[in-house]
Amino acid sequence: MKIGVLALHGAVIEHIKILRAIGVEPVPVRLPEDLEGISGLILPGGESTTMRKLVARWNLRGPIMKLANAGAPILGTCAGMILVAKEIAGGEDPVFPLIDVTVERNAFGRQLDSFETELPVPILGDRPVHAIFIRAPIIERVGPGVEVLARLPDQRIVAVRQRNVLAISFHPELAGETRIHRLLATMAAEFAEPAEGAVATATEHRSIGEAM
Ligand code: GLN
After folding, report:
1. Residue 78 is a catalytic residue
2. pTM above 0.70, yes or no
3. Are the beta carbons of 191 and 164 closer than 8 angstroms?
4. What is the pLDDT of residues 34-49, one digit of tens each?
5. Residue 198 confidence (pLDDT)
6. Is 47 in the pocket of ligand 1 (CB under 6 A)?
């Protein structure tokens, strides 16, 4: 199974290494055609303003929205979380408005620019995640249908999921944490090979296509 990593800018190689480590074939995505045949996509950390510009420059917005709307799982980490939010505090336009949240960029301010903490993420099991925050965003508002996956001790929200889209403020890939990528891979496997009834339909479509 193949999972793409948006490879325009940012912490790309780290995600590629984690995907390899869990037995998934990573595909660096730079052009719309790179999205063909992937079952999920990671939007890495970096600078969301830079990624926003490069996404527009390489005409990736429409094709990535199409992939997400088809149900392929998407994981946004840090700047990637900003990219998938429906609303960005301060009024910047959304890039991929996929999760009904409002995100605040650089939410920890100068004093706490970067920090590491042991973060409970119950969906990943009892062992907390070693979470690395680097000029990280937080979720200010969650809409109905958004599942909160993790909060800091002060209750600020740092991980969410809405249907097939996961967004987290921190960098699991820098801590050698594999459980979030494994969750994405499980979701991607379900997308690639849906439940039995759906497979039959897909096969029918394929044979219809071949007959034409
Ligand atoms: N501060 C960056 C932004 O606002 C995100 C930082 C990161 O991805 N580590 O885009």
Report:
1. yes
2. yes
3. yes
4. 999 999 999 999 999 9
5. 52
6. yes
